[in-house]
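User: Now give one protein:

AI:
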Amino acid sequence: MRAMKNAFAAAFAVALLAIGCVSDGPAPAGDAEGEHFGGEPVRLAIFDFEVRSSVQGYEALASDVPAALTEAFLRGGVVRPLERAALEKVVSELELSLGGLVDPGTAAKVGKLAGARFVLLGQASVVGGQVRLSCRVVDVETAEIVYAGSSYGDAEDIFEIEEELADLVEEDFS
């Protein structure tokens, strides 16, 4: 048990060092509803999506959807996504020490370390040619889910489905 605690402490220290190199400081204080921090975009960490499909070939959605959301958020200007490479370093270290990132509370802690105010967790479900993208936005201070939404349609319309989900999230924060 002590060895596990030491491994966790070491991984946590490495994560803090990695984030310290890329973070531009703590998120501004504000309230959770309609946060725009006096004109500043909301800082959001976007994690890889969990993909559920009985058909092979959709695994790429795990990273493609967050990348598309990042691009859409940058165009919209309401949400400022954090650099995914920094998050991936922290997540990798925590997965090594904890055996996986599974709950919103742990994701919130990682997001807070990265300077995010919120984290976005998501799932892509593919059932017979239909795709549903679902997400939850979690407050890093309280680990409370402050938004949940989804977008769905034909798999061939995946790009429109991604844009719709981004619009829904931004609309909630504007």
About this structure: The first strand starts at residue 42 and ends at 46.
